[in-house]
């Protein structure tokens, strides 16, 4: 409905490009768009302007406004994001695997999805719209933890339920989750699966998020029909490569049998793929043959201290020190020790103090004149001064002892007489002149013509 009002008369005072100045009867001056003036109106033209209210249009627009508000309420006001529900999928001695249903965000915008451990933020979940599980490692053995998800959206913060979990002990093997690869021995594969069933563990043919070990005897994949033809592909399988990429331990089936036999988690390093594990007790002979790279000649163990001592005792005893000269003779300076000959080693027990070993020069020795016979005995002159290297005892100076690989026979029992009593009387100290004579010796003029 349109309500009429009286009209007002104005005179166009100034007409511009976009605006016109209108002058009223009561000296009213207004600016009016020149586009709304009647066609042909110029400066000085008189125009009437009337204003009316459109009530029907006002009601229509009000109805449209409240319909829009109702749509906004039904779309964004009646539903809100749901808090995630956290559940336990698997737990081991040092890790837990958690999962939850897909997020229900309604019409809110996702900000973040964080995982909390013991009320402290641990990390943000990657790809929260599509990812519905996570695995947390590095936990302590037989310890209790609390986990919680916190969903942050444009509609607010929505925490999940609080999940309390206790990690397993070493005797609890129910957390083992195995993915089987290529096992060449079907009996060994069947024995490993039976052992997993008795342990309360699980296995599959595909690597999952809670897979703890990848079990196989060869990294090669077995194609369809390979069992009948007896051929295997040399290329590594897809699951084997995925296990290496995810840092999942690759072990042999003997590890499962060892855990089942000992009723606890055993170390996996002796059972890595490529090692030669010993078959566990009561599990059958499933030992893998040793590879050529690990095979080698057996080395003899190093000789023990008792064997080395026995080898030293089997050598001839060293010669006894010589007896001191009579007090009337000049005291001679002791010559440096020399290696005894085999004859001296055999008769070392009967040596007397003061005897000069063979191979040393006597103080009273003189070179004979030209043409004169050798004053020494024939057997002494013919005897070598120093024994050969292969006849020297192991403890002689300058001889390097070689390690003895095998034990030598025990030496025969030799009765050694006790040493003679030591003379307690002090010897007169030599004078400086005597020491000089001892060092130089008696001089003798030799005719060189």
From TrEMBL:
PROSITE patterns: BRCT, FN3. Residues 293-314, 325-336 have a biased composition (Low complexity). Coiled coil: none annotated. One of its GO terms (cellular component) is exomer complex. Gene3D superfamilies: 6.20.120.50, BRCT domain (3.40.50.10190), Immunoglobulins (2.60.40.10). One of its GO terms (molecular function) is protein dimerization activity. SMART domains: FN3 (SM00060). Residues 315-324, 409-421 have a biased composition (Pro residues). Residues 435-449 have a biased composition (Acidic residues). It holds the Pfam family BRCT. Residues 168-273 form the BRCT domain. Residues 282-449 are annotated as: Disordered. Residues 389-403 have a biased composition (Basic and acidic residues). InterPro entries: BRCT_dom (IPR001357), BRCT_dom_sf (IPR036420), Chs5_N (IPR031673), CHS_Export/Cell_Fusion_Reg (IPR052827), Fn3_2 (IPR031669), FN3_dom (IPR003961), FN3_sf (IPR036116), Ig-like_fold (IPR013783). GO terms for biological process: conjugation with cellular fusion; Golgi to plasma membrane transport. Residues 80-174 form the Fibronectin type-III domain. This is Uncharacterized protein.
């Amino acid at each position: 409905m349109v309500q009429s009002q009286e009209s007002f008369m104005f005179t166009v005072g100034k007409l511009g490009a976009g605006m016109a100045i209108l002058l009223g009867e009561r000296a009213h001056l207004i600016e009016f768009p020149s586009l709304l003036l009647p066609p042909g109106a110029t400066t000085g033209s008189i125009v009437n302007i009337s204003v009316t209210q459109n009530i029907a249009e006002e009601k229509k627009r009000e109805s449209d406004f409240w319909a829009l508000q109702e749509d906004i309420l039904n779309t964004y006001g009646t539903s809100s994001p749901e808090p995630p529900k956290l559940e336990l999928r698997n737990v081991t001695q040092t890790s837990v695997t958690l999962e939850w249903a897909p997020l229900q965000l309604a019409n809110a915008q996702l900000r973040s999805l964080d995982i909390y451990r013991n009320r402290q933020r641990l990390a943000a979940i990657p790809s929260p719209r599509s990812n519905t599980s996570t695995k947390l490692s590095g936990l302590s053995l037989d310890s209790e933890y609390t986990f919680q998800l916190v969903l942050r959206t444009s509609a607010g913060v929505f925490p999940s339920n609080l999940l309390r979990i206790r990690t397993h002990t070493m005797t609890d093997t129910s957390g083992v989750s195995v993915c089987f690869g290529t096992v060449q021995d079907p009996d060994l594969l069947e024995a490993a699966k039976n052992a997993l069933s008795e342990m309360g563990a699980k296995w599959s043919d595909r690597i999952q998020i809670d897979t703890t070990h990848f079990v196989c005897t060869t990294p090669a994949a077995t194609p369809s029909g390979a069992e009948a033809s007896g051929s295997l592909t040399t290329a590594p399988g897809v699951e084997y490569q995925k296990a290496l990429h995810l840092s999942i331990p690759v072990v042999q089936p003997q590890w499962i049998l060892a855990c089942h036999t000992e009723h606890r988690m055993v170390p996996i390093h002796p059972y890595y793929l490529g090692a030669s594990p010993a078959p566990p007790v009561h599990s059958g002979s499933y030992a893998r043959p040793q590879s050529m790279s690990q095979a080698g000649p057996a080395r003899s163990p190093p000789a023990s201290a008792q064997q080395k001592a026995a080898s030293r005792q089997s050598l001839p005893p060293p010669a006894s020190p010589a007896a001191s000269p009579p007090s009337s003779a000049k005291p001679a300076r002791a010559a440096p020790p020399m290696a005894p000959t085999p004859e001296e080693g055999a008769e070392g027990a009967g040596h007397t103090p003061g005897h000069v070993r063979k191979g040393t020069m006597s103080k009273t020795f003189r070179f004979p004149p030209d043409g004169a016979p050798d004053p020494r005995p024939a057997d002494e002159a013919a005897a070598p001064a120093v024994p050969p290297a292969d006849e020297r005892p192991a403890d002689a100076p300058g001889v390097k002892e070689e390690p003895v690989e095998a034990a030598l026979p025990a030496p025969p029992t030799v009765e050694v007489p006790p040493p003679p009593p030591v003379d307690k009387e002090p010897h007169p100290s030599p004078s400086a002149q005597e020491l000089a004579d001892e060092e130089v010796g008696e001089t003798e003029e030799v005719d060189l013509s």
